[in-house]
């Protein structure tokens, strides 16, 4: 199965710990969505937004990896699953079911995401744009 990561699972070391069978595929974007952070944890989430895009990466994961991710992402209580077409295959991603108040991420969580952006060579500008809407200091 293909899985699109856009938050802390971009961090390759963390993803390998969490999903031992995961295989790195390619960085990509999810069109007509924007990155944000919400819930009491300041967890990464995405909202539908025309002409926007979310930067992320695709991994190939096993069924057991998916089950581990489901636990971590608190599926189906916190996140639900959605799919999009990636190279003529379905790729799964998580999106929050209940759109709670937007909340800045913790410094530790943000550091994990920033490492993921470095791992995938994703420009941090898109992350900064999401943080700006939360009045969170920009990252380098």
Fold and architecture overview:
This protein is of the alpha+beta class. It has one domain: Gamma-glutamyl cyclotransferase-like (Hypothetical upf0131 protein ytfp), CATH 3.10.490.10. It is 28% helix and 39% strand. The protein has 4 helices and 5 strands. It has a 5-stranded mixed sheet with strand order 2-3-1-5-4. The longest helix is centred in the last third of the chain and has 14 residues. It starts with a strand and ends in an 8-residue tail after the last helix.
Give the overall pLDDT as a whole number.
94
The value of Rg in angstroms is: 14 Å
Spatial order of the strands in the main sheet?
2-3-1-5-4
Helix content: 25-40%
| Unreliable stretches | none
Output the number of helix runs: 4
Largest sheet: 5 strands, mixed
The helix-strand sequence is EHEEHEEHH
Q: Given the helix and strand composition, which structural class is it? A: alpha+beta
Distance between the termini: 33 Å
How many domains would you count in the coordinates? 1
């Amino acid at each position: 199965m293909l899985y699109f990561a856009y938050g802390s699972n971009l961090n390759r070391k963390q993803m390998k710990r969490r999903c031992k069978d995961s295989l790195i595929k390619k960085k990509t974007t999810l069109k007509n969505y924007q990155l944000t952070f919400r819930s009491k944890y300041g967890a990464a989430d995405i909202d539908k937004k025309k002409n926007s895009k979310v930067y992320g990466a695709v991994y190939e994961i096993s069924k057991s990896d998916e089950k581990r991710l489901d636990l971590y992402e608190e599926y189906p209580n916190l996140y639900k699953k959605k799919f999009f077409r990636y190279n003529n295959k379905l790729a799964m991603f998580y999106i929050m079911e209940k759109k709670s108040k937007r909340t800045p991420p913790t410094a530790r969580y943000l550091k994990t995401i920033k490492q993921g952006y470095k791992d995938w060579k994703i420009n941090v500008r898109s992350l900064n744009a999401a943080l700006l809407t939360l009045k969170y200091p920009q990252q380098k």
